[in-house]
Each structure stands twice: as structure tokens, then as C-alpha cells.
User: Fold these one by one.
Assistant:
Number 1:
Amino acid sequence: EVQLVESGGGLVQPGGSLRLSCAASGFSFSSYWMSWVRQAPGKGLEWVANIYQDGSEIWYMDSVKGRFTISRDNAKNSLFLQMNSLRADDTAVYYCTRGLTRSEYWGQGTLVTVSS
Amino acid sequence: QSALTQPPSASGSPGQSVTISCTGTSSDVGGYNYVSWYQQHPGKAPKLMIYDVSKRPSGVPDRFSGSKSGNTASLTVSGLQADDEADYYCGSYADNHNLEFGGGTKLTVL
């Protein structure tokens, strides 16, 4: 059974940093593109970033370029999102998902709240 | 402002059919056969219902179907059931290597 379990969310002040993790199991992690997708409270889905199987190709949405860094550790079946210079509009539930052209599987999400 | 345009709401009675549209451009919906649809119940993570325009993942009932014409994709839910009441989001792979989403449609089963 495919499982994606996010962690690392919490309350952070504007300008602060947070590192999200996603533990994957039930599939060959190193064989898949992985992505982060977020959802602000009461709002729709928004793709954030994705990363190729070996990490050699990475893409970001414009508003997080230069602030967020996606990475992966295939030996530990883990996906990460380092978030710096956080802003109030980054407040959202962040989901770890599998896939590039579609999000086949989703974790339960981890809530990031940026507020003073 | 979402990249893809969906109606904010749709409704139908049990047993009826309802269709939800998703309009994009030639850079996303019209340019790729990589349209996907997601169902999200309140407080839950989204679930993939349709991928590659019209394919269903294992376990998704055949009451859910997808299609595409030009820059507009559609999700049809036939034989509406109470549990189909949820938010539905379309997604499309796009030129800039990202996955764009619609703003979501709240489906109400009357």
C-alpha cells in the first residue's frame, strides 16, 4: 500500500523558516517524480514544486522561487521542502504527492501557519 | 486566480448525471492529454478520480468519466450518490513543467 506521511508543519513568524518532510513507503520511491501541493484555508489546490527521480530536474511555482527548495533522499525514501523567508500567504496545508503529470497519491498534509 | 477555470458549484439529484467543466489554454489542457480530476471531501486529502483525460485509477467507479475537447475538459458523474457530494478539482500538466489546478467545484447532491 502506497503511503505518504508529511511532517514538520507548525506556526512560524513571517520571515522565518521551516522544513517539511515526507516519508514514502509501499512503492519504489526512486522511480517516481514527486511533488508538493498546497491548499490555503478554504481555498483551492496550488502546485508548489516537483523533483525528478534522481533530483536532477526541479521546477518551482514563480512565487516560491528563491525561497523554497525541494529535495529528496532516495536511500531514505524521503522528500523534503525547505521553506525560507516565509510570508503570510504561504499559510496552507502542504501535501506530498507522487507524480508529474498527475498527483496519483497524496499524504494527509501538514499545516503551515505563518503569523506573528 | 487559478490557472484553470471551473464553475464554483454544480448540483444534481440522486441518480442523475452532472458534468463539470474545466477550461484552460493551448499551453495546458489543450496542449496535453494529461488532464486529471480530484475529489476532496471536507477535511480530507484529495483523491485522484481521473487521469490522462479519461482513465480511471483502480477502485474508482465507472460512474466517473472524463473527456476533453480543445481547451476544455469535462468530468461527468452519472448515477449520483450522496457520497459524491464533495469538491472537485481539475488539474493539467502545462508547458512550464508544472501541474496547474482549477479553482474547484462544489458538487451538491440534492
Number 2:
Amino acid sequence: LAKTTQPISMDSYEGQEVNITCSHNNIATNDYITWYQQFPSQGPRFIIQGYKTKVTNEVASLFIPADRKSSTLSLPRVSLSDTAVYYCLVVANTDKLIFGTGTRLQVFP
Amino acid sequence: DSGVTQTPKHLITATGQRVTLRCSPRSGDLSVYWYQQSLDQGLQFLIQYYNGEERAKGNILERFSAQQFPDLHSELNLSSLELGDSALYFCASSVVRGSTGELFFGEGSRLTVL
């Protein structure tokens, strides 16, 4: 399983764009990059998944460079409700889904 | 609402006891995952089932066991409970066998061992 490294915490203010970068130097050809969001005392929620280039949905964008050794989750115009822990996962079609420690995002008014 | 139902939501018990946590996956989902999350800790993968069969094991203690029944609901059994077993236990389900699909998590069962 590819190891991921992401910042332990980040602070932002409402209305700003937040970019959380994840490093995954030993990503394999079959691996996908997936991000989950978790609020306190709740289960994680799938945000976005990509393989290469850029993926966008109604919640976020995911940027993946050509070498795929990193990825960036972009949250446009964050609000207080975006305060959460964000997990970057690199997954192949295996049966394990291992979460790291995640990035704790705190949004201030 | 993810569609995954976990019961009970809260459970308080004593050391040495045994408890069973139940998970009903989303309709149509064949895979069930169990995770443990202690206070301010990350999610620890415990075990995964697909269509009734165990597919992957994580750092699950020998005192813990799980199974998935023919109707696809799953149970996590925790025995000889210790204080350190106090945690949130999450169940997740997905329609596919592997992990590249989206996982839907339940709201968790909060276990407190006194």
C-alpha cells in the first residue's frame, strides 16, 4: 500500500480557497487517489477520487500532476462548516482501505 | 444519511464483558468494513467482508471477531473488554468488492468500557 504524507493541520478563514497537498511517492500504476472528510463523532464521507489530471465535483477539485506522486485537494471558498479532518488515501482495488492521520482543517470566521 | 445503519449508537459496559455491534449496509452493497477510532486517533481498519466472506484483516485483536450474514448485515463481537477498547466503531459499506469505490460510513457505535 502506498504511504501518504499530508500536513497534520491547517488554518484558514471563511471565504478563502484551501489547498491540501498529499504526497504519495510510491504510488502504483493501479492506485487511485481518494479523499474523505470527517466531522467530529461522525463517519468519514467520500469527497472525491481521481487517477490523473483534474477532477471536479460540486464539493471540491482534485489536482494530480503527471507523475502522480502528489495530489492537491482544493476547497473553494471554505465556510465554518468545512472544519473537519481530511484524509488522503491511495487505494488499489484491494480489500483494505487504510486511513492515515489526516489533515485537521480549522476554518475561522 | 449514508444509508448504513449501526446499532447501538451508544453502549456502556464494564471490563471483562462482551458486546455485539450490528451494521446494516446500504441496500445492494455487498462489502462491509469495520473500523475503530479511539479518542483523537485515526481510523484503524479492523476487517472487511464481501458477500459473506472475510476478505481482509487489519489490526483486529483476537478478542474481536466479526461475521457477515446471508442478508448481508454484519456483526462485530468484542469480548473480554478492556478500558482501551473504548472507542467509536464504524461500519462502512460499498457495492464493489475492492476499495476503489466509494465507501459509505455509518454514524458509528460509541463504546465506553468502565
